[in-house]
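Quick one: structure tokens for this chain, please?
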Amino acid sequence: MSSKYYGSRGSGAPSWYLQRVTGVVLFVVAIGHYILMHYHIDSGHTYDAVLARMQNPLYKMLQITFVVIGLYHGLSGTWNVFRDYKMPGWLSWTILGLLYTAGVAFAGLGIATILSF
């Protein structure tokens, strides 16, 4: 009995790993967000305070990273839920295409909004 072992290619292992890594990154960034925005009274939630904070390029990059990683994590998780169901090929590809389209659209909208400050 000879069988070839193909490793994790096609098994979804890289997606599983990235889902865990992005979850940990989002957890750390969410704690930082909480401390920055809610722990200090002087952080300010007015438009002027947000505008002043958004002038910092590092803060903009943090927000863009948060948007992109959050979208990846959320849409990948949604796709994994759909993968649990046995669907015809055309429906699976349609749902995946809609998720990709939504991801690109929302990432573009989020990045454009952040860069407009």
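The chain has a mean pLDDT of 86.
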